[in-house]
Fold these 2 entries.
Entry 1:
Amino acid sequence: MPSYKADLRDARFILHEVFEAPALWASLPTLAERIDADTANAILEEAAKVTGDLLAPLNRSGDEEGAKWIDGQVQTPAGFREAYATYAEGGWVGLSGNPEFGGMGMPKMLAVAFEEMLYAANSSFALYSALSSGACLAIDAHASEELKRRYLPPLYEGRWAGSMCLTEAHAGTDLGIIRTRAEPQADGSYRITGSKIFITGGEQDLTENIIHLVLAKLPDAPAGPRGISLFLVPKVLVGDDGSLGAANAVSCGSIEHKMGIKASSTCVMNFDGARGYLVGELNKGLAAMFTMMNYERLSIGIQGIGCAEASYQAARDYARERLQSRAATGAVAPERVADPIIVHADVRRMLLTMKTLTEAGRAFACYVGQQLDLAKYAEDPAQRERAEALVALLTPVAKAFFTDTGFESCVHGQQVFGGHGYIREWGQEQLVRDVRIAQIYEGTNGIQALDLLGRKVVGNGGAALRLFAEEIRTFAAAHETPHNAALLDAVERLEQLSGWLLEQAKGDLNAIGAASVEYLHLFGYTAYAYMWVRMVAAANRAYSDDAFYAGKRASAAFYFERLLPRVQGLEGSIRAGSASLYSLDAEQF
Amino acid sequence: MPSYKADLRDARFILHEVFEAPALWASLPTLAERIDADTANAILEEAAKVTGDLLAPLNRSGDEEGAKWIDGQVQTPAGFREAYATYAEGGWVGLSGNPEFGGMGMPKMLAVAFEEMLYAANSSFALYSALSSGACLAIDAHASEELKRRYLPPLYEGRWAGSMCLTEAHAGTDLGIIRTRAEPQADGSYRITGSKIFITGGEQDLTENIIHLVLAKLPDAPAGPRGISLFLVPKVLVGDDGSLGAANAVSCGSIEHKMGIKASSTCVMNFDGARGYLVGELNKGLAAMFTMMNYERLSIGIQGIGCAEASYQAARDYARERLQSRAATGAVAPERVADPIIVHADVRRMLLTMKTLTEAGRAFACYVGQQLDLAKYAEDPAQRERAEALVALLTPVAKAFFTDTGFESCVHGQQVFGGHGYIREWGQEQLVRDVRIAQIYEGTNGIQALDLLGRKVVGNGGAALRLFAEEIRTFAAAHETPHNAALLDAVERLEQLSGWLLEQAKGDLNAIGAASVEYLHLFGYTAYAYMWVRMVAAANRAYSDDAFYAGKRASAAFYFERLLPRVQGLEGSIRAGSASLYSLDAEQF
């Protein structure tokens, strides 16, 4: 019953009009040869087709059937194998991969738009691909030339897939205490032994090989996170010529039965002296893995936007058609038994909350993509450095705020359907279940918040935040919109509060943990206010009476009037400090 | 894996110490002969046993197995039949039923504590019983003596069960447009024809008969809600002597596949000229049904508290045992590989949010129960009238705020578990799925909010709210606590805002709908602030250094410092008014 079609109009608006990507690409020599406005539009259109026509129709059936574990093999739901083959053939796995090894080298600003469509259409399916793309990024950044030449091309082609093996039963957030061991062999390889849990796509029947990136410790490694190394462990051993050989000593012990993303296999992976190859330097595995983790964090953030968009489309369509009660101001469809529920204020409140959070998220994902592209392709080292600082600052915001607001949006989208929202066939409840994991995996949103406030704000004395705040002030000074004053107030509030927290953190070791989640939300609402001002500025620049631009201006007003006030409550909670969190003993809970 | 044990200490604290129920009961002649402190404690202990030992163990298996529809029959999951028989034998269905017909006549103040345990242990199971209790209430209040004599005793005994048949496929919130017809017969009965959906327990294999309360329209009835009548339609026809006769023309066409409460059957019920009996007056069926609906609304509100309590218990236990990372202030368990996560500020924030919302909800349920008891048993008509006004005002708050905060709590409880929270065997994700329906059924929380602001506040010019506000001021004047100033501020804010909305509503027909949900939340946080002041006052009265009382005081501080500030953001959104909700056409969404 549910259907999803990418909102190409908004994707183009954000890419071309808000962030003027083609002009940026033309200014960056590497990208200038690869992409222009027409190529980008053609890719977006193809992306809309593959996600809407090929993957969306498998979303409900995938949820009902689920991934199955049969004697160590994983069977994905009906249609997934064929769809993955078509998808891989289209080159989507390597969309922003390194062209030297077969990737398409497309900018992240474009890739984020595609990722949103992918998660919106079918989050379970999307994960198989997302893990491959992330693994490629880590291999490309840290592995030897030989490993790159051997592993990247089939990964970009989608013939092989990737996985990320961090978590162990006793070690999730706290990776310093992992027990998986790596023993050096005479030939320079390692024997990996240990058990990993929650491995997305650790086993599947979509690709002929799976390349696991595994965190493990050498026998003599230092204790804690500084003793962790990263290894590439293929499911099937690969010959010098790239041919597949014997099975490696890797097996899938079971898969989890989960709340959602049921078509994605979540595996217990056992490594029994499996052959592995070091990626990057010994004992610096965590840093190398962070290349993949930061990729996945933004990607999982985008899952939040994608699920919210899918839920919004369905809720909007339902609200236009479902007849129930009369508008408060009098019947708008007197010829029918009741009015469509989109006339009711509270239904509009829910839809506009979804719409304005999702569109701001879409813009912010493109903005972070722009910084990633600048960090990679800008010629000026100072520009690269600035972009890297922004990426570091904004990645935890993107991951956690996209998914927290994505979850809120999907819950609204379910609520718009009334009782039907709770029934499986309508699809809205699946989106709630599927998006829920995005607040948990790739580092819980609580961990993202600690990373933001502890490392990315307090850790550098607020320097990165100042970059962001100054950019916002500069933009506002150059672009008049009705919301500039509110935006500047919000930025001022964020900076004041950050300064206050910098002081608090000096005297109170619990200050950061006590404030972090509310702080991240306050940061997120401020960042979205910036996005809405940029969208209004772009809509004004269009000098058009197209209803699309009027809708953008009206949506911005809703965001500033109805959602941004949430920061007032958040500030109140933050300023209460940590004391009341620690006045109960563990036994008094 | 999950287990639930009722928190008897807190139940007794609220009943005896906060609301001093035994003294109240002693002052009300009808209740004085039925119950005293010892009886109440004995019932609570038995309730804890039946819910913890009998029903909680069937919760996970019930979710996995689900209710099944086989050729028109519903099969409840393994163990439900036997458990229901034991449960009914204990007299729990008729706990607060009319003693004249076999009920136990227990006060609502006590019954709400039991209902919480029931939903906490097994929400699906609870519903079969809750519908019976509600149906009894409507029959007792509105049916003829003959119907009461014939139907109430077996319902109270639990040999038969009840159902509430309102919704039709095209008519959920908007009951005025139902199509089910009732044709008068020569013998005074009616033939009921039509199809109802979303009927909880419409068919099941737990009881030998099911008594449906059905909304239908006579052929010549006025259009809209003023043409609706209420009928009692038994699944099996009942002879004059109470014996079971032929099957009535009622059948279950299918059951829904849902997000949660999977062991509860949600039925499509077809009435094909079924024999029915009028309950109450013709065309006044909606008012009669509201006796049942208001009962169910409070009951479903309590589902929110029950699920939150179950989630809290599991999250607290997990947080005490799960070892991960070190406390920010230095290791508290240096002999172990990491500290229990309850040392971390953000874990404490989640647990304390759950704890303080749940305990305030528990107190507020008891408070509403007290008003229901006063409305029923007080000898002074003025006291009854005042209590009725408070019940009318507070029922939508209880239904919606208990379940919105209950959902928030269950999401926190899942988050505390990290990745394990997403895995079915741990039980936390089931609670999220099960509690989610409580925000939707028995009138969505959006509808509750319209009822509160439109009918219960604006509708009487704020008179009912003044009663509540005056009571709070009187209490605060007589009981000094550290939070009185904050409570009085919150009440002042609520009253000011209500006055402002009364004015807005005169000029803007959309004003109520635009503000209603945020208004209900602001009301709820204010009511919970009152509950926390009452709990602190009771804890102070105890003059005890028992850690329990210290814990109450510390929890109150958390509530006032960290959660109550949310009203600031809510007020900001409310004062923005309705304009931004209506600046987009339906096509611009």
Entry 2:
Amino acid sequence: MPLTERRLADPDHWSLASAIRALSMDAVEAANSGHPGMPMGMADVATVLWGKHLKFDASAPNWFDRDRFILSAGHGSMLIYSLLHLTGFEQMTLDQIRNFRQWGAITAGHPEYGHAEGVETTTGPLGQGIATSVGFAMAEAKMRAEFGEELCDHRTWVIAGDGCLMEGISQEAIALAGHLRLGRLIVLWDDNGITIDGKVSLSDSTDQIKRFEASGWRTLICDGHDAADIDRALTAAREDDGRPVLVACRTTIGYGSAKKGGTSGVHGSPLGADEIKATRLAYAWDHADFDIPDDIRARWLQIGQRGAAAREAWAARVDALPADQRDAFAARVSGEANPALAPAIAEVKRKASAETPKVATRKASEMVLAAVNPVLPETIGGSADLTGSNLTKTADLGVFDAQNRAGRYVYYGIREHGMAAAMNGLALHGGFRPYGGTFLCFTDYARGAMRLSALMGVPVVYVMTHDSIGLGEDGPTHQPVEHLAMLRATPNTWTFRPCDVVETAEAWELALSTDTTPSVLALSRQNLPTLRTEHRDENLTARGAYVLREASAAPQAILLATGSEVEIAVKAAAALEADGIPTRVVSVPCMELFRDQDDAYRAEVLPEGPVRVAIEAAVRQPWDWLLLGERGHWQRADFVGMTGFGASAPADRLYKEFGITPEDTVAKVKALL
Amino acid sequence: MPLTERRLADPDHWSLASAIRALSMDAVEAANSGHPGMPMGMADVATVLWGKHLKFDASAPNWFDRDRFILSAGHGSMLIYSLLHLTGFEQMTLDQIRNFRQWGAITAGHPEYGHAEGVETTTGPLGQGIATSVGFAMAEAKMRAEFGEELCDHRTWVIAGDGCLMEGISQEAIALAGHLRLGRLIVLWDDNGITIDGKVSLSDSTDQIKRFEASGWRTLICDGHDAADIDRALTAAREDDGRPVLVACRTTIGYGSAKKGGTSGVHGSPLGADEIKATRLAYAWDHADFDIPDDIRARWLQIGQRGAAAREAWAARVDALPADQRDAFAARVSGEANPALAPAIAEVKRKASAETPKVATRKASEMVLAAVNPVLPETIGGSADLTGSNLTKTADLGVFDAQNRAGRYVYYGIREHGMAAAMNGLALHGGFRPYGGTFLCFTDYARGAMRLSALMGVPVVYVMTHDSIGLGEDGPTHQPVEHLAMLRATPNTWTFRPCDVVETAEAWELALSTDTTPSVLALSRQNLPTLRTEHRDENLTARGAYVLREASAAPQAILLATGSEVEIAVKAAAALEADGIPTRVVSVPCMELFRDQDDAYRAEVLPEGPVRVAIEAAVRQPWDWLLLGERGHWQRADFVGMTGFGASAPADRLYKEFGITPEDTVAKVKALL
């Protein structure tokens, strides 16, 4: 149907959708940067979704039982900013829209969690939104099972583009969602046949309908510019038969732009003043830049209030709960650290210091989880098909699957990236502290979502075992050498590499207490002795680095080490002491936290004078600031570690061949003295 | 059919397959490490494939026109080692098999390219094999188009497991392969229903047949323990109708192990002496550990010679070519640097130094490619849907697609990981120097395959544009800050960040000359002045770092910078000189290459004494060794760069807000003096 006919056929809808289109064109033009084509193409779908189906209340953006709306095609950010503005989200003023993509505005280039209320998760890196939404839908299903439909009864709506569907992470996501039968997850595919390079047919011939059905999805198709047809499809999509739903919305990118509509020319560039003028004419939108007529504004504001009654009814139900249930619910959705955590951790530490077990830190992590999981109902664990290696599944967790929503353990399958994104969604939704495992080396596969954990400040926990050449025979494809450097270079990421059960417990305590920072626990495959044999209530790992073994006299040498190499440092120190060289051992379980300490503490741990040698079975890059001093204070220093990839052999042999032993350490210290 | 019936029904096949199974059990047992279940399960399929279908000649492992065999399920490495040993690959002695997974052996834990001939690519990280195989099949199709079936006429066979198919990268791979109609790519899926965590049904419900068909694949099913049925399926698979082929081989993992067969218990652990004994009985394999009876050995060796005649005929056809065609073919498959490269680069440098254009380094890269592509037929370019941003497509390249195999540009789609793996395959196959582009930030998505480029030493070129906050309004989801650190921490990776056209040309020259190291070109979105205004034939970038601007007198300060920040360094130096502070500017286009220089050169560029300030719009981590000295020589030093994620705003504003300006640099220098 030609545009004019559509306009005349449904003028009420048309004017609402035109407001989105006009704001999107204008904001991108003002910024001289952005993607107008997608909001223009999906304005009709978004209007019907927000106008009739999405459960939300603009006056209460963080209402727990709202539907979640996720713009996976994050480059079309003006779509969501327009919707938030028009429906009356307080923060999203016209001024913010005018300052799209400018310094200090909440209208970031791509939607960023924490900038504007109503943005549920950061999107932009393609595929992340759809994969994160799986976590949102898991969280909803699980909270519903735990607290009942009275408290939790909502849907997760996603707008995704061809880019999202081409990214590999989308396959991990849709396979997982289909398997888990997340029937309240609805993906609206902006099926416009255009990518940045041109037509989708340049690079893809996938039958997406068939592909989603192969993963157990229900599929629907609608004309994405026909409000009635969209309404029909979304109504059908809301029926939950256990299958997640794909709605293929056939749209024209840049709809209404005579010169650029339907082409990649409108994907990532402003239309230009002339084309905007012509497009306004086509829309019969006779209003100034950024101007929304009062009647249309009023109707959009009404839409923003659609959910108010439902929200009030929900609040009344919460209020009517028995106090203990109400408190339990409030505690779960608060995101605050659970007061049961500290005593559980203290007990693990006390016992370990007394019994000094010799176990791998992955096993230590399991011991911690065995103490923590029973008292923290908010944890939800999992592994990317390495459960028996990561040791992430403790007794009585139960398996979260299509049949058992009460379960607290997820078999994520061989899907590291999808797992990480799902964990982000679980945490963002509220009610959960997710953790999930794989080998440290496969951080590579999960990187895209792990970076978003850090950027968003989502406190998920990555349980990364087999953290060095110490895994032995599997060889260099599985042996991380650069990954600790990569993680430490990433802002807002705590990289813990604990040396024994006590430090592992302390790392878990920190990881489960923060609400702003994701944690990576780098854990050994091989057994390690308990080195913290004297119980201290204080969490020493929170200091980032501390004196583990003091020298017998004023130290001539300081050995720094993490994880499995702390044992080597302790042995080397003993040998040096035997040779009359007073040597201090500093354990460095978390460089980031040490960096945050004050100068006095850092100088106390690492005084000037003694030679410094660091030991870590990985590359040196992140160590230089500790070895050499942040501002170049003179140090004599060296490093015991890796300079290249590992090899396939038993771990002991590898440590010897690569020169990561007490003897090598002693020799390097002596060479510096 | 029960195992015994199968054994009696086809004793010849049975004994061949049993040899694989026995060697695999014995080697894993001896190593006390490895994955016996997969080789035991796929032994029948492998026997039929190598025995009747795979084109190869064990006496000439590197014969160009051999079929490529890729064990994507790399954990089952004993399958390929057994096959190489049994068919008579000279390197793969019984001693190597006995030393499976031991120090110095070529029988690495997972198959590693460069260790044993016959291993075409490194596998182990799941999904890499199947994705790399797409590059192999692209290379075959393209070489066939260029040189004719007489010289290039082979298939790519892949064995993949459930893990490979669950990884997101597999979707990128199969969608690309289906779109490109790579009809000679055949994937044998070890459909055994088991992963490490247990049954596939714990984590996946995908209809793989339907999924592959949705991507344009032909699908076949066979009983993976019935030699005749396997033969039927492989025969059918060899017909090339334009669709790549999936053969679902229904198998039992650990076939023949009464206690562990068909379970995850046999996936990643030795069977144990008792179970091996029982399984030998079931196989009626009455031979000692590692013992292969002479008659069976003889039959396997015959299989190894199956392709000898075909190879000789091929060699005769090559010999019969006109000299110029023969030379052209030899040059293409040699992998050596093209002698036409140096003059083309020299011309770009000379012109740039004379004309001093102010262009982005991504544009500079396009200028280099425009000069290089016409004279280097081995380059094959592409982008993950950012062609107009990466500027990777030069005139007259033509598009490589299903219709046009002569094209030299690939629209990879929004598939960074699949693109990187395909590039690895293109390079490994021989005949090509692939390059491909995306934004530097999306290195995250391609990491898994980029690490394998480095581990294998494959000289692919990653064209990573929009390399800092300098990309501006797209915001932190697109602004790399930790990625340069990550790349520099990765062994055997050249990370180039050139500052102008001349350095960009030099970086390309190095990247296209090496045959051992992948390169990453980090390129600016924003325009930069030409700073190398005096032509030098010498490739200064090969030094890694060099004096770009000398101080007016003995330097009191040295400014180090890369890429877009070199301009800031030059301006800051001018300001410092104006204030009477003699200042040297050192450009550092490639830290790795500077590290490789001798001490004398490094001391010449970075003498002790002057203060040092480095400038890079990224995190400081990789700079400390340069700022502070590798062994802690005293320096007064500081850093101008990023400490967190970026923001959405125009680039100039961001540089100012984050304090990356000449003024900030001057202030930091003065504070140190």
